[in-house]
Amino acid sequence: PTRPTARARAMLIATDGSVTNMYDVSDSDFTVKGVITESPTNDQVYTVGSNLVNAIQWTSAGIGDKASVFYSSSGSDNWIKIIDNTFNDEVYPGLNQRDWTRTMTKDLDPSENARLRVDAIGSFGNFTNYTPLFVARGIKVSKPVSNEVFGIGDSESINWLESGIDATAVAQFFLSLDGGATYDVNPLFPWDTQVGVFTGANWTVASDTDPTVNAMLKVVITNSSAPADVNYEVESKPFTLRGLKFQTPAGGANWELGTTRQVTFLSAGAGVFADIQYAYNGVDFDTVDLVADDILIYDGLNTNDWGIEFARTPSTNAKLRVISGSLTADSEAFTVGGVLVTQPQGTDIWAAGETNRIEWISVGTDGTNTIEVLVSNVPVQTITGVTGTYYDWPVSSNAVSADVAIRVTDTGGYSGESPQFEVVSEPLIKIISPAPGDFVKVSDVYKIQWSQGGSMPPTFQVVYSTNDF
Length: 469
What we know:
Blueprint: E1 5-8, E2 11-13, E3 23-25, E4 30-32, E5 34-39, E6 45-47, E7 52-61, E8 66-72, E9 80-87, E10 95-100, H1 102-105, E11 111-122, E12 125-130, E13 134-143, E14 149-151, E15 155-163, E16 170-176, E17 200-204, E18 212-223, E19 233-235, E20 239-248, E21 254-256, E22 260-268, E23 273-279, E24 292-296, E25 300-307, E26 315-324, E27 327-330, E28 334-343, E29 349-351, E30 355-363, E31 368-375, E32 378-387, E33 390-394, E34 401-410, E35 415-417, E36 421-424, E37 428-433, E38 449-453
Parallel strand pairs: 6-13, 14-20, 21-28, 29-36
Antiparallel strand pairs: 1-4, 2-3, 5-7, 7-10, 8-9, 8-11, 11-12, 11-13, 13-15, 15-17, 16-18, 18-19, 18-20, 20-22, 22-25, 23-24, 23-26, 26-27, 26-28, 28-30, 30-33, 31-32, 31-34, 34-35, 34-36, 37-38
C-alpha cells in the first residue's frame, strides 16, 4: 500500500485467460497504518512570515492521535519543530490541515531546499514522512542576533538570508528603539539596498542614537520586478545599542547655583556604577569634586538629584560627563547661573587699613551687586551699587577676625559667598610648618611653610633657634 487509510480493502482478480470475471473482495475494511504528507508539494512556494490557510497537510491512519511537524532549511538536517504534539485526526479520510502562520515561521531560515517532516508516535510505533522539497521564500535578518551588542558610534554589519526574492528587489531599513512598537520614519540608509542580490550592509551607528536593550531592525522591500515582493517586511530580533546619553540638562538649559536639579541619562550595556563630572568651560572636567560618585545605574533611564553647590563656577558653557566603565557621554552645553566669589580664598590673611581686591564670577545676573563683609556670619560692612566683577576694598578694622567672609549679592537675587579667611589688625607672618609638636631629624630635609598677612616685601629671611628667641 502507498497510502494510509482506515478503509482499506483487498481485491483478488484471476488473471488466467481461461477464466473471466472472477474476483473476490475482502469482507470488511482494514487499516493501512502510516502517515503521508500532502502539502506543500514539490517546488511549491511558501513565504516565511506570512499566513497561509491549511497550507500544511498530511493524511494518517492507525498510528495514534498526536503528531508533530518539523522544518529543515537544508531539507535533511537541523530540524526545527514548528507544530508540537498536535491532535492527529485519523477518522477517514484521515486528512489533517494546519495553517502556515507568521508567528510560526517568521524565525525560519528561508531556503530553496526546504522540507517539512511529520512525526507521529503512537502505541503502534513511530511513523515519519517528508514533504518534497519546496521554496521557503523570504528574508531573515541573521545579524544582529538576539541580544547582540552593537556600539553606538561604531561601524557594524547587518546580514540577512534570502531565498525566492527577485534579483531586482530593493529595500529600506528602519530602526526601532522600543522593541518594535514604533520605528523611525527615516530609513537607516539614504539609499535603497539590493536585498535580492546582496546579503549584507555596513551600518555606522549614529553617535546621537539613544542607547537601548530593545533595538530592532525592520527590512521593507520598496520596489521589485516581482509584485509579490513589494511591501514584504521582516524584523530582526531585539538587540542592544550600547552607550550612554544625557536627557537632562538639555542644551541651553538654565540651572542655578544653590538649586537642586535632576540629572537624567540613558544607559544600555554599560557598567553597574557611574560617576558624573562637571566642567564649567565644557572641556576641563573636575575629576575630584564629582557631581555623583559611583552611583548604581541600570539599563534604561537613570536619574540623580544634584544640589548645585555654591562653590561651582557659574558658566554659560557648562557640561556634565557621565562615566561608566569604558563608556563616557557628555551633555549638551547649558548655563549654570549665579555668583562665585573667587577672591579672597580660605588661606588668605588680609590686614586692616590696606586695600585688597574682592573678585567674583557672575552668570545670568543683572550686574549690580551688594557686597557684605561678614564676621561670624554677621554683616559688619555693606557696600552697594557695585558693578563689574571686582571691587578694591579698603579693609575695615571692623572686620578684624579669624572668621571673615565676603558675600556678593546681585539685585536679581543671586548671591555667592567666599570661604572664611582672616583679617588682622596689622601685617603679620604665621608659621604653618613645622607645627608645634612636630619631630624634625637632623640631616633630613623638611619644607618650611608660612603665610603672609598684609602687605610686606616679597623677600623673607628664615632663622632658627635651639633655645627660643
